[in-house]
Write a structure and sequence with these properties.
Blueprint lengths: L1 H19 L9 E4 L1 H9 L1 H10 L4 E5 L13 E2 L2 E2 L16 E5 H13 L8 E4 H4 L1
Antiparallel strand pairs: 1-6, 2-5, 3-4
């Protein structure tokens, strides 16, 4: 009986750190970023983080197509209708993916990687959240 209790306790102790530090296993690990998306992540970090925090499972599908209008914030309005944002800066669709499943830890990591990235986005950079964080 004592042997069974000890073996059960040792099994739980060996598995417990894995369960406690479990991250999002279904979230995207590789995120391809262009300069427009990088600006968006930094400028809209709080909004994206709040969206993720509002989800019961702690992760959200973040659509970075919404980032195309970051450079047009504060555009002039005519009556109640805002002017259409200029698409001239955003005609390059070189990104292979625009929607990423990401959790709060992954978003924090992505923001840090973008802020510390010191070379140009030519035309994109792929960040590996698993390796870099």
């Amino acid at each position: 009986m004592r042997f069974f209790e000890l073996s059960l306790a040792s099994a739980l102790i060996s598995v417990l750190p894995t369960l406690v530090s479990a991250s999002c296993y279904v979230c995207d690990e590789l995120i391809e970023v262009d300069s427009l998306m990088a600006d968006c992540v930094v400028k809209r970090y709080e909004d994206i983080a709040n969206e993720i925090a509002s989800k019961p499972n702690g992760r959200a599908a973040v659509n970075f197509d919404q980032c195309s209008d970051v450079s047009t914030e504060g555009s002039s309005k005519r009556g109640a209708i805002a002017e259409f944002p200029s698409l001239s800066d955003y005609t390059d669709h070189s990104l292979s993916k625009r929607v990423y499943l990401i959790d709060a830890e992954g978003l924090d990591c992505l923001k840090h990687l973008i802020e510390t990235h010191d070379s140009p986005y030519d035309p994109t950079v792929t960040f590996d959240l698993y390796e870099s964080c």
